[in-house]
Amino acid sequence: MRNRGRVIKNMLIGMIGICICIAATWVSSMTGKGNVVNGYIQSNWPKMSFFRFEISIIMSSIGITLYYIGISEYIKVLKITKRRRGYRENRMAKLFEVGAVAGLISYLFIQVCFIMMALVYKLLYTTSLMGADIISVTEGMFYYVAIPVIAFYVISIVAVSIPYMYFTYTGKLKIPKLFILFNPLIFLGIGELLKLTKKYYLVDFSSAAVLFGFLLMMAAGAIHVSKMPDDKRERRRRAEDQ
To answer: How far apart are alpha carbons 72 and 70 in whole angstroms?
Structure first.
């Protein structure tokens, strides 16, 4: 593959971006012990400082920008190799691109929406409104944007995970078959199982479970690129250097 080192470096930058997004998610979502969930409302929001929400937005913006660098290379790798594949592989590669773009949009969109919910709830909590009214106003605000938020969230996970699992299972990605489990859809399920434990530290950890799936998927892509054969021009250049 041409410029293999640059591609892997950009994928590593994307992985750093995902790690920043994971940290940003924890900063805004780890509610701690004693939190009670009421629909989308977290009872510990009023106890959390405004600084946590502010820094989370800043970190999310930086992280998703770096992630874009990595996922763009992932898309290019699939586009380069799909020319040798059949109709189904081409469609899967295109589906992956759609999911990747949806993921870029949805992460920051979702972060902003839920942080705004937390801020509204936190601010209303200090007023004379009753608890039920505060919850109604806060959730009502979210329902105005719920359809695009949920739609982008689902597309970003499913449309990336299914092609990734297909290419891994069929051997198109040069990675161990076990890596088929390293995708956002599987980690979404793991996150939901962690929430069922009712242990606050596992529930807090699960808030970034899907992002861990994206991180491992990106790492698998970097491994695939490292195993791709050199193109003719690259082999000729190496032969001349020797």
So the answer is: 5
Q: What is the pLDDT of residues 93-138, one digit of tens each?
A: 899 999 999 998 888 888 988 898 888 888 888 887 777 888 888 8
8 A C-beta contact, residue 177 and residue 228:
no
The answer to whether the beta carbons of residues 214 and 202 sit under 8 Å apart is no
Q: Report the candidate in 217, 211, 215 with the shortest Cα–Cα distance to residue 24.
A: 211
Average pLDDT, stretch 65-77? Answer: 92
Q: In degrees rounded to 5, what are phi and psi of residue 31?
A: -90, -15
Element (DSSP H or E) covering residue 105 = helix 87-125
How far is residue 216's CA from residue 224's CA, in Å, rounded to a whole number? 12
Tell me which amino acid residue 175 is: I
pLDDT tens-digit readout, 160-199: 999 999 999 988 888 999 999 999 999 999 999 998 988 8
36: its two tokens: 């009670």
- State the Cα–Cα distance between residues 8 and 3, nearest whole angstrom: 9
- Comparing CA positions, the residue from 215, 227, 173, 223 lying closest to residue 13 is 215
pTM value surpassing 0.70? yes
Contact present, 164 and 217 (Cβ < 8 Å)? yes
Element (H, E) at 142: helix 131-143
